[in-house]
Specification:
Blueprint: H1 11-17, H2 20-27, E1 31-37, H3 47-60, E2 65-70, H4 81-86, E3 92-95, H5 119-127, H6 131-143, E4 145-152, E5 159-161, E6 175-177, H7 180-187, E7 192-194, H8 198-207, E8 212-213, H9 218-224, E9 232-235, E10 244-250, H10 251-255, H11 259-293, E11 297-300, H12 303-323, H13 325-347, H14 349-359
Parallel strand pairs: 1-2, 1-3, 6-7, 6-8, 9-11
Antiparallel strand pairs: 3-10, 4-10, 5-8, 5-9
Helix pairs in contact: 1-3, 3-11, 6-13, 7-12, 9-11, 12-13
């Protein structure tokens, strides 16, 4: 499957501006897809991204290409989206690929690895550094579908804790809702990871089934109400320097789609991948202020915890790479690319961001 270049073709806006929608409407068949999401309907940022993609696709084809969006649990549970697309229960699904690392840790390269890339670095690797071709060749062959990045939250928070986490000893035996690959890393430090879909986290935290939980960041976390139960809010979410959700499309469904519709769908996902990050950057500052004003206690993971986690992460990657040729191939590409990106970001982005974080937007 070949992805149409979103920027080159001007996105959905470019397609509409070029006046192609009427031509599509005249010459193409009505196509109806079902889309299942891993996320609860209450989160307008997450399910909302899928709904916006569906709207853009419909608008660009004069409503001839229709995608009906279903939130987690309406067709399948949130953690079964990959299975639903692979089995052709639905044509496409919105999810984050580390949910399925139990099937194969290599699936995580469609999302993020602990101490991995930020948003811009991930997009550079995916769109320009060969990541898309490597990952989708693996996904198409092994799981019968293809991934299109459609949403990225940016760097996430480290989660909500009932008690302060000051040392490595405080992690021992901690029942922590954390997804996929991060769970495997934290397990090496004595944490008991629990993978739960978004809608199941609050009840588990409230009942004491788990001691702590991470989700996304201030805007989404406030909506799910975690601050009502756990007051310590930690940063950074070192397991998610970015969090790239994807739209999975079954190979058979894609091959049956007219090429014009393929272009529209690809462009809509690419547009959403940019707009969703901007939306989080817009909403999170206000939500963070609101949480802090309401009594949330902001904390930073200690250097001891960060260093031990970094060491544990790379030990885990080495183990997977020694046993899994697909993982090693993707890891070699991913971490070599990240090393080059970090060298560049130290030159300009890092120095600028570090300076601005000490001075602020106004003269002081």
């Amino acid at each position: 499957m070949q992805r149409r270049d979103f920027i080159k073709h001007g996105g959905v806006a470019g397609i509409l501006a070029a006046g192609s929608a009427p031509a599509l409407a005249q010459s193409q068949p009505v196509t109806k897809w079902r889309l299942t999401s891993s996320y609860p309907k209450s989160l307008d940022t997450l399910v909302g991204a899928a709904e916006n993609i569906a709207k853009r696709v419909a608008d660009a084809t004069s409503n001839k290409f229709q995608i009906q969006v279903f939130a987690a649990g309406e067709i399948v549970p949130g953690l079964q989206v990959l299975d639903a697309v692979q089995n052709a229960t639905v044509e496409c699904g919105q999810t984050i690929m580390y949910y399925y690392s139990g099937k194969d840790p290599a699936l995580g390269f469609g999302a993020i690895f602990p101490f991995g890339m930020n948003v811009r670095q991930h997009n550079a690797w995916w769109y320009q550094g060969g990541g898309e071709q490597l990952y989708n060749a693996f996904l198409q062959k092994s799981y019968g579908c293809t991934a299109f990045p459609c949403l990225n939250t940016g760097t996430q928070m480290g989660g909500w804790f009932r008690k302060e986490i000051k040392t490595l000893a405080d992690l021992k035996g901690l029942k922590f809702r954390v997804g996929g690959i991060a769970g495997a890393v934290l397990q090496r430090l004595g944490v008991v990871p629990q993978q739960l879909a978004g809608g199941d986290i609050y009840p588990a935290l409230e009942k004491g089934t788990i001691d702590a939980a991470e989700w996304v960041g201030p805007y989404d976390d406030e909506k799910l109400g975690f601050y009502k139960i756990a007051k310590y809010y930690y940063t950074p979410g070192w397991w998610e320097g970015n969090a790239a959700s994807v739209m999975l499309v079954g190979n058979k469904a894609w091959e049956a789609l007219p090429k014009e519709y393929q272009a529209v769908f690809t462009a809509a996902c690419g547009e959403s991948n940019t707009v969703a990050t901007a939306r989080y950057d817009h909403l999170n500052p206000t939500a963070m202020k609101k949480l802090l004003a309401g009594g949330t206690q902001l904390r930073v993971f200690s250097r001891e915890i960060m260093d031990a986690s970094y060491k544990a992460a790379h030990e885990q990657y080495a183990e997977w790479g020694a046993k899994n040729a697909e993982f090693k191939k993707l890891a070699d590409s991913y971490f070599k690319y990240l090393e080059d990106e970090l060298a560049w970001f130290r030159v300009a982005e890092g120095t600028f961001d570090n300076y601005m974080s000490t001075r602020g937007a106004k003269k002081k």
